[in-house]
Amino acid sequence: MAALSRRLAPVLVAFALATPRIRAAEPAAESTIDLTPRVSASDLAEVTIELECGGTLRLRDGERASATAANDTAADDTDKNTDGVRALPMSLSAKLKYDEHRVAPAGNGTATRAIRYYKDAAAVIKVDDGGTAPKLADDRRLIVAENPGGRLSFAAANGLLTREELDLIDVTGDSLAIDCLLPHRPVAADATWPVDPNTMAAILSMDSVAAAEVQNVLDKFNHDFALVRIAGTVVGVVDGSTTEMEVRGVYLFDRKLSRVTRFNLAVKEKRSIGGATPGVDGVAKLRMNVKPLDSSEHLTPTTLAALKSDNKLRLDMLRLEPEKQGYRLCHDRRWYVTNHRRESTTLRCVDRGDVLAQCTITSLPPQSAANQTTLDEFERDIRFALKEHFGQLVSSRQWTNSFGNHCLEVVVRGTMEDVPLEWHYYMVAPASGNRISIAVTIQGEMVNRLATADRELVNAVESVPTATSTAANLRPTR
Fold first, then answer.
1. Cα–Cα distance for residue pair 113/314, rounded to 1 Å
2. What is the DSSP letter of 140?
3. What CATH number is given for 2-307 in this structure?
4. Which residues of the chain have pLDDT under 70?
5. Using the 8-state DSSP alphabet, how is residue 255 labeled?
6. Could you give the CA distance from residue 176 to residue 181 in angstroms, rounded to a whole number?
7. Rounded to whole angstroms, how far apart are CA atoms 278 and 75?
8. In this predicted structure, what is the pLDDT of residue 20?
9. CB contact at 8 A, 358 and 440
10. Radius of gyration in angstroms for the set of CA atoms belonging to the chain, rounded to a whole number
11. Which residues pair with 113 in a beta bridge?
12. Every domain of the chain and the residues it spans
């Protein structure tokens, strides 16, 4: 489910937009209009976002639809195959509704932090003959969003989000980003102004933008509203994949509220197959509406005060907890789940378009304390498994991670098909519960860039009870 739901945001395009009705400015009225957004200390609104899209998912031969589209249905021989790439039809329908308080900035300008309660957050995703319906967990509905000047970051107030939950709320046209489209100054009728590349990254949920040629045009305005059209092209990176987007839309600036209250956007995307995500040729449409609120039962003054300036939330971390595998861990956003099996989960670490490493986490049956694998036994097992590929033993060590689990590590260098590789093998053995094996494969030139990211996964492994493990001695969840 991860990869397709992850792209609720940039996989978009629509053929038509519902244009808000607005009367043109009268000739003798105003000659200019101030399009500067403002945020009040009591800012509160209900935001609704609706997204519909459809198109084609492209995968390399040998990849399962489940590995990239979060779908457990494998593609069969009827899939289209051209030059080693298979095409699967996909569609998506999503709706978000949340109460939002934008934290007023210290000076003039747009808000960069928002506190939300998601009353509705769900999607229906279909890939080929399979489908899934992700939704936001009840205890993860209180969310803090931040705009650092690029792709937005999100964190739940009550714990870490999963990748699926993040993908569900990390959508194109986020209400914290759209006011950045405004020129922040008075403009005359028919004025045009460009969109900053960082703004397009925030609007389209992109990791980075290499080129953006997008223009705003003031179409009409009166005493109450201004209607602005936006169109152009954007080239950049989404989740490690290069992409090209054509955008066309219209938004409504409410002069009394001094903010954008309606945003209809059409985006046509052609994305290459990435290291951990599929290629996409997609069309969709986005509709966003903002309605001011006097109060919210979910965003009380006490709730807001606790989150307005709380920088302790880990906006860059996610939670992984595969069902029935007996563990949970936290990881940064560079790790993407590419496959789920009954007893194992495969991830790839993708950074700036490069695959740094592949990691397979396998759940093993529990063992008594007297029969736990020793470091020497672990090393012998690895030598046997690698056989002629075992070149040099770099290091081996053992320690106890932050959850009290005994950890073993063996690092080996070698080659496979003349490619220099480094293997990092780990075993995490709790006092009670399933043992966890973690095998990381790194191409030689990526070792320094990966640094300690794999060891951080190991230090974050926490045992959780399963039907076949004993939970008596488990440490409390942190």
1. 14
2. G
3. 2.30.230
4. 1-29, 62-83, 310-312, 467-478
5. T
6. 11
7. 14
8. 52
9. yes
10. 25
11. 146
12. 2-307, 317-463
Residues 196-221 pLDDT 10s: 999 999 999 999 999 999 999 999 99
Give the Cβ contact number of residue 21 at 10 Å.
9
Q: What is the pTM of this model?
A: 0.85
Closest alpha carbon to 236 in 253, 213, 259, 215:
213
Residue reference for tokens 């009870």: 465
Distance CA 182, CA 122 (A): 30
Whether residue 397 contacts residue 409, with contact meaning beta carbons closer than 8 Å, is answered with yes
Q: How far is CA 412 from CA 241, 335, 358, 372, in A?
A: 30, 22, 15, 22
According to the CATH classification, is domain 317-463 in 3.40.1000.10?
A: yes
* pLDDT at 75 (0 to 100): 31
| CA triple 52-53-57, angle to 5 deg | 155
The token pair that represents 312 in the structure block: 């302790």
Query: Which residues, including other chains, have CB under 8 Å from residue 385's CB and lie 6 or more apart?
Result: none
Measured CA distances, 27 to 33, 40, 435 (Å): 14, 32, 76
Residue with token string 């990390």: 170
- CA 8 to each of CA 174, 198, 261: distance values in angstroms, whole numbers, following the listed order: 12, 19, 21
The CA-atom distances, in angstroms, between 157 and each of 5, 138, 299 are 22, 12, 12
Return the structure tokens found at 412. Answer: 């080996």
Number of residues in the chain = 478
What is the C-alpha to C-alpha distance for residues 385 and 131, in angstroms, rounded to an integer?
37
How far, in Å, CA of 442 to CA of 450, rounded?
8
Determine the Cα–Cα distance for residues 97 and 459; give it in Å rounded to an integer: 36
- Which of 261, 269, 248, 267 is closest to 288 using CA atoms? 261
With H, G, I as helix, E, B as strand and everything else as coil, classify residue 149.
Answer: coil
| Cβ pair 247, 213 in contact under 8 A | no
Residue 56 and residue 401: Cα distance in Å, rounded?
A: 43
Residue 16 has what pLDDT?
39
Backbone angles phi, psi at 83, to 5 degrees: 55, 40
SS3 29: coil
- Terminal Cα distance for the chain, rounded: 26
Of 65, 81, 64, 204, which Cα lies nearest the Cα of 132?
A: 65
Enter the tokens of residue 316. Answer: 């860059």
Residues 6+ apart with CB under 8 A from 300: none
Distance CA 193, CA 14 (A): 24
Determine which helix (DSSP H) or strand (DSSP E) holds 68, and give its type and residue range. Answer: helix 65-69
CB atoms within 10 A of CB 68: 28
Of 369, 341, 235, 263, the C-alpha closest to 48 is 263
- Contact yes or no for 405/426 (Cβ under 8 A): no
One-letter-per-residue 3-state SS of 188-222? ECCCEEECCHHHHHHHHCCCEEEEEEEEEEEEEEC
